[in-house]
Design a protein that fits this description.
seven-stranded mixed sheet; globular; 200 residues; Rossmann fold
Length: 200
């Protein structure tokens, strides 16, 4: 087992790890290279499973000893029973799916709780890049140039909170993080990631 150094853990991953209870079952949708799932497996003793579409990322997950299936989360979670996981996690993957309503509804069906992490397009550094440089922003939570981004939509912390209210989805907890630590004031301006714990 590879040792996890505190300094190498992303702030959003730390925040999610604080939310997830020891020994829980976790389904990580769009798990990428598996860093978050690996952290949860080795520090929270979770029974974790991931779904990822990128073959190279899946290979990295397998190298970490993780259980990850190749799949497109846009195609649904029909193979999973209702409430079969304590947590379904969508961390910085929601902006890459085409059918938001379907993915959120399915996640709430399969998970007792859903943890969503959204990159905040209204982060002040993003605003300044658009204002002063006249260019699409590149930040730690939005690290791609406009021509190679996998994102199909851009949203803000406020947008997602409004979405949950309109869809009558309960937000049980909100955590906002900047590039190095938690953010407590004006999160839509100063946080580059918003983390929401949802339930029905």
């Amino acid at each position: 087992m590879q040792k996890i150094e505190e300094k190498n853990i992303r702030p959003d991953h730390k925040a999610i790890a604080r939310i997830v209870k020891n020994g829980s079952s976790v389904l990580d949708l769009g798990c990428g290279n598996g860093d978050l799932l690996y952290l949860l497996t080795n520090t929270k003793d979770v029974k974790g499973q991931g779904i990822e579409i990128d073959d190279r990322a899946i290979f990295e997950c397998v190298e970490k000893g993780l259980s990850v299936f190749h799949g497109d989360i846009d195609s649904g979670l029909a193979d999973y029973r209702d409430k079969s996981f304590d947590y379904v996690i969508l961390n910085q993957s929601l902006q890459q799916v085409a059918h938001i309503d379907n993915v959120i509804t399915d996640s709430l069906r399969v998970g007792k709780k859903v943890i969503v992490g959204v990159p905040n397009f209204a982060y002040y550094k993003s605003r300044l890049q658009v204002l002063l440089q006249g260019k699409m922003p590149v930040t730690s939570s939005l690290p791609y140039s406009w021509f190679d981004t996998p994102n199909v939509r851009f949203l803000t912390i406020r947008d997602f909170a409004d979405y949950c209210r309109d869809k009558k989805i309960r937000i049980e907890k909100k955590v906002f993080v900047g590039e190095t630590k938690k953010v407590f004031i004006f999160p839509n301006l100063f946080a580059n990631v918003g983390i929401f714990v949802l339930s029905r």
